[in-house]
Amino acid sequence: MREPLTNPLEGVFPGSASVFAGLTHIATKLYIADMRYNARAVAVGAVRAVLAAATVYEALVALEVIHLGSVSGDGAPGEGVVFAGAMLAMLAGAALAVMSQVPGARLLAPSGAAFLLAHFYTFDPYYLPGLRRMSDQGLVAPWLVYCVIVLALVAGVLAQRRGPAGRLPTVAALLASALLSLFASAGH
Known about the structure:
Blueprint: H1 17-62, H2 79-99, H3 108-120, H4 142-158, H5 164-186
Helix pairs in contact: 1-2, 1-3, 2-3, 2-5, 3-4, 3-5, 4-5
């Protein structure tokens, strides 16, 4: 265990113990606040990384680089895990956007919308062995997806502002992206 800090100025400036204790207290509070801030920044980075990876995966499925199965309901390998990870990441991103303003939060809503767009153009495993995209006469209308994308871009711009004007559109865009992704998957 560490020894408590001693006042290096005690011999030079008698009675400076209270000043030293006050400065130590302030430095400790700033350090704790910085650690909390950094933890949130790391969490935002993790959410963005998960959404980026899930978006790339869905884009590769949509481009037929990752092949789907040949039986109805037999999707691409790992599709369920990727989709669940993206859903959890969007919910976590919404929670982080509510809690605080951290660097990188401005990219949360556009990241969620990018996943929505990639997922919207992937193939629906229900119709295998035929290839029918979720965007082809599915439960979610394309104009609704595009409206969420515009909302996400506006949220990204507004997220640089402090307060509810910056946070609420991010939360709305992430939740809308998650819900539309979920409904797009259910629309067969």
